[in-house]
TrEMBL record:
Designated name of the protein: Fimbrial assembly protein
Classification via InterPro entries: Ig-like_fold, PapD-like_sf, Periplasmic_pilus_chap, Pili_assmbl_chap_C_dom_sf, Pili_assmbl_chaperone_bac, Pili_assmbl_chaperone_C, Pili_assmbl_chaperone_N
GO CC terms of this entry: outer membrane-bounded periplasmic space
Similarity section: Belongs to the periplasmic pilus chaperone family.
Subcellular location: Periplasm
Residues in Pili assembly chaperone C-terminal domain copies: 181-237
Presence of the UniProt keyword DNA-binding in the record: no
TM ranges: none
Amino acid sequence: MRNCRFWSVFSDFVRFFAPAALFFVSLSSLAVVNLEVTRVVFNGDDRTLSLTLANSDLQPTLVQVWTDNGDPLLAPDKVITPMVAIPPVFSMAPGEMRSIKLLLTSRQALSSNKESLLWLNIFQIPPQTQQDRQAPQKVLLPMRIRLKVFIRPQGINAPIESDGHKLSFTLQQDEPPKLIVHNPTPWHMTLSDITCGHYTAETSMVPPQSSQPIMLNGSKGTCKTLQYNLINDSGNRWQYSTNL
C-alpha cells in the first residue's frame, strides 16, 4: 500500500512538472542518484539485468524507476512496456549504493529482426531541508535521468566498428540544409561530432533499417568529406570519415 501511495505522488509530479523534469535530463551530472552506465543493452538471451545506483548526496532521496516507449511526458502509471524495474519505488540513504533489476517480461511485441528501444527513467525527489521549509514560495523540483535501453533479438549480436561503414549519406543543401542518414543495419546508430566543411550537427540517433534527416548548422559551402563518430555499447566513440 505504501508503494502505491508513492507511485501516485510520482505520477502527479510527472504530470504537472514534466517540463521541469525534462530540463534536468540534460543536467544529469547534477543529479543526486547516479549510475555506472550511460546505456543499457539486453542481448538475445537476457531476461534480467542489474544496475547499481549511488546516492552521492548527504541527504536521503526518494527514487522511482520505470521504462517508457519514448514519450517523456507520459506518467509512469499510464505506460505499458514489456519491462519492469524491481523495486519500482524506494528511498536511498546518504552515500548508499543500491542494486535494481530490470526484468524483460516478454519479447512477443518486440521485433525479431532488429533492435528495439525503450527508455529507462530514474526520477528523484530531493528531501525538503529546514531552509526549504522556511521559504514558503520555494518549489522543490524533481530530477530525472533517462537512459536508452536497447533490446536485441536472438541472432543479432553487438555491432562492431566495421558496421559503421554500412551507413550511407545524402546531402541536401536546401533551406535549412540536411544530411539524410541511411541505416540498413539492425541497430540504432547514434552519431555524434558530425562535421562536413562549415557544417556541424547535433548528436542524433537513427533507428535500424530506416533513413532520417539530420539538420545541419553553419554557413552554406563546400561539403565533400563527412566526419562523424558512432557511440558504441560501452559509451565510447568510433571515428569515421567518408566522402559525399
